[in-house]
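INTERNAL TRANSFER SHEET
From: sequence group
To: structure group
Subject: Putative caspase

Please process the attached sequence and return the structure record in the designated field. Keep the field labels unchanged so the import script can parse them.
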Amino acid sequence: PPALFPTLLPVLQVVNSLANAGLAYLSGNKAVALMSGLEAVGTMLFGPKTNHDARRRTEENNQSPADVIQFGGCRDDQTSADTRIDGQATGALSWALIRVLSQGPNQDYAQVLKNMRQLLRGKYTQIPQISSSHKIDLFSPFKM
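Return from structure group:
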């Protein structure tokens, strides 16, 4: 019955880890045997691993205490274009960023992004994006 699954999960994880340890040992891979054995002991002592735990660890580890804000040349499903401006090879986003900042230094992040998108619209198919290491106020002054 489904009600037994939460009770059986730790047992199944321990059995699986011990089976992996035994197979690894028999094949001569003592490092994997040791790690699988330790995983079984960890499950017995601390309980089963869950997706919730994995998600929490991922969220904790995928953050930076630094203030990182990035403009990307395009969406993930697009390609960022290279171009030639005044005979010099450059990226389309780099050109747009320099142009936007030279037109008005006192802009917020949202204005910079909007103005870069307007400059590139019609010339390229890419749509610039912004991302950061944590939540930011897009209407705060752009700082470099």
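Handover comment: Residues 19 and 144 are 54 Å apart (CA to CA). Residues 5-26 form the longest helix (22 residues).
Transfer complete.
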